[in-house]
Amino acid sequence: MKSLPVLRAWPKPFKKLVFTFVLISFIGVVVGGVMIEVTTHLTPQGVVEQYKGISKSKIEASEELKFPKPVKEMLITTHNHILGLSSLFFITGFLYLATGRDSWLQLSIAVEPLISLFVTFGGLWVMRYLWSPFVYIVILSGALMVGTYAWMSFVVMKESLSKQDKG
């Protein structure tokens, strides 16, 4: 099987396009992370309250009201994130695979955000309607998703700035 040339060997205009795409996409994901911090304070309780609402006993002490997310809003959140992020993770994973040799580790890293995307947003449904402690799986898979995506973005941007080896 014939493989693609490594990203480092791509023509300069393509590498600039790749760098710009990955940088802007990464900034978009960071803004999404800030949004999660603002709405959940990055705590398990904050995530549960964001989707299940605040219990009646805590409403008076709470600074803001949060109500259980209705099915329609859960569907919109799941649909938008899976559709948008799967395309982003596929493109970034494809570019990441173009940065080096074929290995099981590199392939695992390229596929991981797609698997975590399913676990994270499927897990929100489990946490919302079935079992609140599933929030820990949601947080773990979300952290893995963002961590591997950030790693791939860093490697792709670094390779797209590299000069082609002369040899």
From TrEMBL:
This is Uncharacterized protein. Keywords: Membrane, Transmembrane, Transmembrane helix. It comes from Fodinibius salinus. The chain crosses the membrane at residues 17-36, 78-97, 104-127, 133-157.
